[in-house]
Write a structure and sequence with these properties.
The chain is an alpha/beta fold. It is built from 13 helices and seven strands. It starts with a helix and ends with a helix.
Amino acid sequence: MASRQATSSSMTVALLLVAAAAVQMLVVDAATATASPSASAKKKPVVPAVIVFGDSTVDTGNNNAINTVLKSNFPPYGRDLHIPGGGATGRFCNGRLPPDFVSEALGLPPLVPAYLDPAYSIQDFATGVVFASAGTGLDNRTASVLAVLPLLKEVEYFKEYQQRLAKYVGPDRAKHIVSNAAYIVSVGTNDFLENYYLMVTGRFLEFSVGEYSDFLVARAEEFLTSIYKLGARRVTFAGLPAIGCVPLERTLNVLRGGGCNEEYNKVAREYNVKVKAMIARLRAKLKGFRLAYINIYDAMVDLIDHPEKLGLENVSEGCCATGKVEMGYLCNDVCPLTCDNADKYFFWDSFHPTEKVNRFFSKRTTAVCLSLLR
């Protein structure tokens, strides 16, 4: 009897140890899944790829490969991007950009690679690729200001990408990826702040600001039509943000008290009205074109007016350096004034949002992308 009791006790202890080990493994797995941004990438993707065009709001590193002064592939840029492929990648942010979050939310990798980044191949680009170039605009002259890629060049790379993709996965699969991908387009701010209002390309002599808005909307329509003809069908196009509220413009607005430049914001709102009308025309004109407008302006103003919604403490200055004028090479790890916690800030540098704000904005874009699948 004593032997049976001993055997039974041993079996009970063994079972308890096995159960404890199983529970521990589940806890570890759950913690890993929560901590790792790539965990969601393991779920089944709802689209085959995310394809991106535009400027620094979505450029994940293409400017690293071209001869321009507008770069961000050095600290403290990327200081909070602690996942494989992270660090100072050329993203104008302390971490990830909206396309990265959208990609992850759609079941794809948590970082969307830049097309000109030699660290990536067509195998990586098959599930996501960025053609965007920081500093570019809808107006080709905008790209010439800082010698970056014009939007026309981004389209050329898109054509080249399709040829490479067809060789890699076959023509039929390549066509499927291109036609079913989620497209993100974010461009336009530089046309006003870097071009028209800086008076460096002569556009201010050619057009009134209203006429220039019309000119830009026409260029946007040409661009969207061109990628439609190349196979794009599910496209989100972002309107202008409140361009007068970025820290750099607040600093330049010092004679009016240093607040948001409401003249610039009015221009952005009027431009956005024209963009929405253009999008409606294209949707009616181009069969099967699921084109949607992303309202960045209202979301930005609401967050600036109510920073407590996201736990922000500073919505008027950037985290990097003084936060008033620094961007690109002026935002570097030599400056001792850079903030310790970027999550308290709306802006990372004098022009671009922090990762926390990018994540917030990306939720709206993700929801629109999903609506285009219905």
